[in-house]
Design brief:
single chain
Length: about 70
Amino acid sequence: MGIHYDYKSTKGNKLMEKQAKREKKLAEKKAKRLAKEGPKNQENKTPALDPNKPISLDFLTNPNKE
């Protein structure tokens, strides 16, 4: 007489707990992946060329680019 009456009343709570657990797990995975990839992505950024500025020979051959 116990389990049949208890199932429907606790079903919503169990589903919410499962979803919260799933979201927590995904958030941890995402944080771990971002921690791994974070510094690598920031190092590879190069400044883009300004399309309004003409490219000169001095700009191309200057080793001390700004």
